[in-house]
């Protein structure tokens, strides 16, 4: 017999149905109700945080809610953008980036995605389109999205990313800025992207009536580089430590490492991790590296990996796509850095080039082999027993790289499970199949560990 839903689940379900029921005839009312729901969740993260999470986890949840809800609170000072943009530029101008993926994820967290997905599909968006982008387009098609003063995106990391924002700009009548990112890093490529970012800054100043202080921008970039360095230093501390996390928190912290990178809060979260992890309880269960997004609402998968003594996500590649591992080596079980090798070719003294370098070197940019190699390295240092590659609905890039990842990771001794599903639209998930396959995978990892002892 199925377990009865909790009171909290029942309330969220009713809330989501109420929003969905308004989308067709009262789209702005639906948006306001959703905004109120996000604000209520923000209040919880401020005053009633999850007791089971580590302090750094509670900070991560709060930063994500503050970022998304803050942008909705101040639409005239918001920029609609993509997850992979160097958001220090917006933050240094006192603007609030509204990340497409974050809005879709939060809408799903409120169980309200179905009405917006339906609006997009009824407007002609293919059913197979990425559901993160489909939900955002649904906001615009339904009339729930207030036209932003500016839309900005870059070519990283997918085809949908390159189509959606251009369409939204045409639909909403908003100015659109686009950053073209070369696949391979060179100093010429870096200068090319840096010049585009400078041009974007001029457009932002004109649109929002603000003046950029490059010293403030450099301060944001300096915090970004320190934050990413702290994340790298946290990798070996995750080995056999109880992370006290869940799929939802992993996605929130991935958002923080993009939407709020460069802020004192995100740097504080990364520093807090370095304090939390050495003192966390020893973990005897299975540690996983998670590749791509996670269906944080899946009840059956929650039972297997959320704050669980049997298995946990020790590290996810969405949090480590931008870090530099140059000079780092795992030698005799010790994670060491060769200080003679610079982490970055450009420091915060050259903020435009520093942001451009990080954008080009992001492992979601360029050939899939770079991304797989990043997963292999973080799995090795964090002591992962296995890897899960989650092929999100409509994400052709992850689907295309999944078999390469499985082959290369398993050749490196990291058993890998490829799961298909959807991180936004619940109706596209096969709960039973996913939990059965995940359960069998965990049993295999347990048996393998027993054989290796």
Descriptive account of the structure:
The chain has a domain at 77-84 and 148-452: 3-Layer(aba) Sandwich (Rossmann fold). The longest helix is centred in the middle third of the chain and has 22 residues, at 187-208. Helix 8 links the parallel strand 3 and strand 4 (176-179). A four-stranded parallel sheet has the order 2-1-3-4, sandwiched between helices. With 453 residues, the protein is α/β, with parallel strands linked by helices. It is built from 17 helices and ten strands.
Summarize the structure.
This protein has about 450 residues and is α/β, with parallel strands linked by helices. It has helices at about 5-20, 25-45, 55-75, 90, 100-110, 115-120, 130-140, 160-170, 185-210, 215-235, 245-260, 265-280, 300-305, 350-360, 370-380, 395-410, 430-450, and strands at about 80, 95-100, 150-155, 175-180, 285-290, 310-315, 330, 335, 385-390, 415-420.
Identify the notable features of this structure and list them briefly.
453 residues, Rossmann fold, 4-stranded parallel beta sheet, 17 helices
Low-confidence stretches: none
Q: Which whole number gives the mean pLDDT?
A: 94
Q: Count of DSSP helices?
A: 17
H-E string: HHHEHEHHHEHEHHHHEHEEEHHEHEH
Shape category? globular
How are the SSEs ordered, and which strands pair?
Blueprint: H1 7-22, H2 27-47, H3 55-73, E1 78-81, H4 88-92, E2 96-99, H5 100-109, H6 113-122, H7 131-142, E3 151-154, H8 159-172, E4 176-179, H9 187-208, H10 214-234, H11 247-259, H12 264-279, E5 286-291, H13 299-305, E6 311-316, E7 328-331, E8 334-337, H14 351-361, H15 368-382, E9 386-392, H16 396-411, E10 416-421, H17 431-452
Parallel strand pairs: 1-2, 1-3, 3-4, 5-6, 5-9, 9-10
Antiparallel strand pairs: 7-8
Helix pairs in contact: 1-2, 1-6, 2-3, 3-11, 3-12, 5-7, 6-7, 7-8, 9-14, 10-12, 13-17, 15-16
């Amino acid at each position: 017999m199925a377990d009865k839903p909790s009171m909290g689940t029942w309330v969220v379900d009713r809330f989501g149905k109420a929003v969905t029921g308004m989308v067709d005839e009262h789209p702005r009312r639906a948006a306001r109700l959703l905004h109120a729901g996000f604000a209520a969740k923000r209040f919880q993260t401020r005053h009633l945080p999850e007791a089971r999470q580590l302090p750094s986890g509670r900070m991560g949840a709060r930063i994500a809610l503050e970022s998304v809800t803050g942008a909705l609170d101040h639409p005239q000072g918001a920029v609609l953008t993509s997850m992979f943009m160097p958001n220090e530029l917006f933050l240094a101008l006192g603007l609030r980036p509204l990340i497409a993926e974050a809005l879709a994820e939060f809408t799903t967290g409120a169980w309200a995605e179905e009405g917006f997905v339906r609006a997009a599909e009824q407007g002609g968006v293919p059913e197979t389109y990425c559901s993160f982008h489909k939900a955002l387009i649904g906001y615009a098609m339904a009339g729930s999205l207030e036209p932003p003063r500016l839309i900005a995106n870059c070519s990283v990391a997918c085809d949908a990313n390159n189509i959606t924002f251009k369409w939204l700009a045409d639909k909403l009548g908003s100015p659109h800025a686009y950053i073209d990112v070369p696949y391979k890093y060179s100093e010429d490529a870096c200068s090319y992207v840096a010049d585009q970012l400078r041009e974007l800054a001029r457009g932002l100043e004109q649109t929002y009536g603000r003046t950029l202080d490059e010293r403030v921008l450099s301060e944001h970039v300096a915090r970004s580089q320190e934050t990413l360095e702290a994340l790298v230093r946290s990798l070996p501390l995750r080995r056999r430590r109880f992370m006290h996390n869940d799929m939802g928190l992993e996605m929130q912290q991935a958002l923080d490492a993009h939407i709020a990178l460069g802020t004192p809060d995100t740097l504080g979260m990364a520093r807090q991790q370095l304090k939390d992890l050495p003192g966390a309880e020893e973990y005897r269960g299975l540690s996983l590296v998670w590749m791509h997004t996670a269906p944080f609402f899946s009840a059956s998968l929650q039972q297997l990996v959320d704050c669980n003594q049997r298995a946990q996500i020790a590290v996810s590649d969405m949090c480590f796509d931008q870090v530099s591992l140059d000079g780092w080596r795992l030698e005799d079980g010790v994670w060491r850095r060769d200080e003679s090798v610079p982490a970055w070719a450009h420091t915060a003294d050259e903020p435009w080039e520093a942001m451009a370098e990080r954008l080009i070197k992001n492992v979601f940019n360029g050939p899939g082999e770079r991304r797989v190699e990043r997963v292999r390295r973080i799995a090795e240092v964090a002591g992962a027993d296995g890897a899960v590659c989650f092929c999100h609905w409509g994400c052709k890039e992850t689907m295309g790289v999944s078999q390469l990842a499985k082959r290369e990771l398993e050749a490196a001794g990291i058993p890998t499970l490829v799961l298909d599903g959807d991180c936004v639209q619940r109706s596209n998930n096969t709960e039973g199949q996913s939990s059965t396959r995940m359960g069998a995978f965990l049993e295999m990892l347990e048996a393998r560990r027993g054989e290796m002892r």
